[in-house]
Write a structure and sequence with these properties.
The chain is an alpha+beta fold. It is built from two helices and four strands. 24% of the residues lie in helices and 23% in strands. Strand 2 and strand 3 form a beta hairpin.
């Protein structure tokens, strides 16, 4: 281990997004919807309580447009 703590990163694929809005409804601190209805990411590195909320948003996404990765 290098001493650098891994960070959880949110990744959005706007091409997959169907505009259901579950992410924006569940976690408006991290997600919004653009004029086209598709997801807009507000923050890529959720920390603390937002990390748990981001997992929920990923699980709620019907199109699979949201993913979490470890850097």
């Amino acid at each position: 281990m290098t001493g650098r703590q891994q960070e959880m990163r949110l990744v959005v694929d706007r091409e997959l997004c169907v505009g259901a809005g579950q992410c924006a409804l569940s976690t408006p601190e991290l997600f919004d919807q653009g004029d086209d209805g598709r997801v807009v990411l507000r923050r890529t590195l959720p920390e603390d309580e937002l990390a748990a909320k981001s997992r929920t948003a990923v699980d709620l996404c019907p199109s699979g447009a949201l993913t979490l990765t470890d850097d």
